[in-house]
TrEMBL record:
Residues 25-48 are annotated as: Disordered. It comes from Ferrovibrio xuzhouensis. The lineage of its organism: Bacteria, Pseudomonadati, Pseudomonadota, Alphaproteobacteria, Rhodospirillales. This is Uncharacterized protein. It comes from the Bacteria.
Length: 80
């Protein structure tokens, strides 16, 4: 019975230790986002997809707008 009591005290101490270490800093609770029932959730910003093309020299796929030279002399893309 003593082992069980000691084990539960250790577990409780570790639990409260983690809670103490991970508490919000500055003494103020973390701000909660205000939920407005009349508003719709906002969609994330739209990202534009971009096609990838294979380099005719080395075969590496690169984005068309940001293609840079692979370092070979006959690479068709501009050097960085």
């Amino acid at each position: 019975m003593l082992k069980f009591l000691l084990l539960s005290l250790i577990i409780t101490g570790v639990w409260y230790g983690f809670r103490y270490v991970n508490r919000p800093r500055g003494g103020q609770p973390a701000p909660r986002p205000e939920a407005r029932p009349d508003s719709q959730p906002q969609a994330p910003a739209q990202m534009r997809a971009e096609d990838m093309t294979a380099c005719p020299v080395c075969g590496t796929y690169v984005a068309e707008s940001t293609a840079r030279s692979c370092g070979r002399g006959d690479c068709p893309y501009p050097a960085a």
